[in-house]
Amino acid sequence: MIEIEAGGIASTVQDLGRTGHYHIGMPPSGAMDRYAHTVANYLVGNDTDAATVEMTYQGITATFRDDAVIAITGADMSPSLNGDPIDTWETVAVDAGDELELAFATEGARAYLAVAGGIDVPEVMDSRSTYTLVGIGGHEGRGLEEGDRLPIGDAPAERRELVGTRIDDEDVPDYANEDTVRIVLGLTSYRLTEEAKETLCESEWTVSSEADRVGYRLEGPDLEFEEREQPFGAGTDPSNVVDLGYPIGSIQVPQQPIVLMQDAVTGGGYATVGTVISADRGLLAQRQTHKSVSFESVDVDEAIDARRDQNARLEAIRADIEGEN
Amino acid sequence: MATERITPVDLPEPRYEYGADDHVFVELAEEMSFTANFKAMAITQQVAERDIDGVVENCPANASYMLRIDPEIIHPDDLIAELKEIESEIDLENYEWETRIIDVPVLFEDPWTHETLMEFRERHQDPDGTDLEYSAELNGFDGVESFIDAFVGAPHLVTMVGFVPGLPWCFQMVPRNQQLEVPKYVEPRTDTPSRAVGFGGAFSVIYPVQGAGGYQLYGRTPIEVLDTEQTLPDFRDSMVFPNPGDILNYRRIDREEYDAIREEVKAGTYEYNYGEVRFSPEEFFESPAEYNERLMEVVE
Question: What UniProt keywords are attached to this protein's entry (chain A) (predicted)?
Answer without folding.
Answer: ATP-binding, Hydrolase, Nucleotide-binding, Transferase
